[in-house]
Each structure stands twice: as C-alpha cells, then as structure tokens.
Amino acid sequence: MNTESIFERLVEISKKTVAPEREEELPRLKRRDQRSPRARARNAAHRRALARGIPKQTKYSPKIVWPSRGRRGGPQPPPGASVLDRIVRAMEPGHWYARSDLGHLAELAESEIAGVRLFSHDYLTRRRNPEWQRWEAPPKERQPYWLYTLTLAGRSRQCELSAR
C-alpha cells in the first residue's frame, strides 16, 4: 500500500480539473481590442492561471456596444439600462435631490453622472435650493445650488420601469 502525505494528496486533488464545459464561442476580437493594455493584462492573467492548473479564467472581452436604432439615432441601451432610467427608478416622487445624491442613489460613477442629460426626456425638473448660501461653508460642505425632482412624465416612466 502506497502512503502519501495529506498535503500531497490535497495538492493532487486541487490540480484535477472538472470536465471542461463547452465555452460560449465569443466573437473574435478586433485587432485594436487584442492589443489594448486591458486585453493584454487580462489574457496574461488567463495564461498564468492555466499554467498553475486553475481551470476556468475569463479572457478579456470588449465593452458592450448597444445596437443602433437607426442611422442618426446612434447606439441605444435597452429600456431600463440607461443612466437616466437608473436615476428615475431610484428616485422617490415628491423628494428633492442634489445631483450628487442622484449619483449615489443610482450607484453611478462620477463620469456617468457628469455625462447625463437630465432634461433630455422631461423626466426631471429642477429648482434653486432655498437653503443655498454663497459663503456659508467651504465649497465641499455647501448646500447644492440646484435640486431635482420627478415630473409627471418621470413618474409614469418610473411606473413603466417597475412593471418590467
């Protein structure tokens, strides 16, 4: 009877791979995506993991490009996935929010909230903050100048999004 240490047996068990599942065939990456720094780093990590015997690692895949509505419409996300829809879904009717609060509510990155056209579909309206004072506190601690709330169109859009 051949005796092994427990450690050697555990190493042997951990190196065994599960029967490889059929991976989804991803479309072949374009040349610019293969050479990007993110792709090179991700694929290098993939090769290192395979060399160590770790069975499943993900390769780099480029970011999602939404399908286009038409020639001039440009790429559009599906309903509910746009940044404005995420903001509308997170707001409560009748409450007033600062722009930074909208970003935190909808869990947006700083760049996402900066690029939002808040009035593009008439879902939101804004007013001046009555509590805003110019020299009340340091700039980071001041009350916001503008406050935002849902309009009737925003409330109906919120109902549409919650029904899905």
Number of helices: 7
Low-pLDDT ranges: none
Radius of gyration: 25 Å
How is the CATH topology of one domain named?
Arc Repressor Mutant, subunit A
The biggest sheet, with number of strands, parallel, antiparallel or mixed sense and barrel status, is:
2 strands, antiparallel
Structure write-up:
With 164 residues, this protein is mainly alpha-helical. Among the domains are: 29-61; 83-163, Orthogonal Bundle (Arc Repressor Mutant, subunit A), CATH 1.10.10. It is built from seven helices and two strands. It has helices spanning 6-15, 31-34, 37-52, 83-90, 99-105, 110-114, 152-163; strands at residues 124-128, 146-150. Strands 1-2 form a two-stranded antiparallel ribbon. The longest helix has 16 residues, at 37-52. The protein is elongated. The mean pLDDT is 78.
List the helices and strands and how they pair.
Layout: H1 6-15, H2 31-34, H3 37-52, H4 83-90, H5 99-105, H6 110-114, E1 124-128, E2 146-150, H7 152-163
Antiparallel strand pairs: 1-2
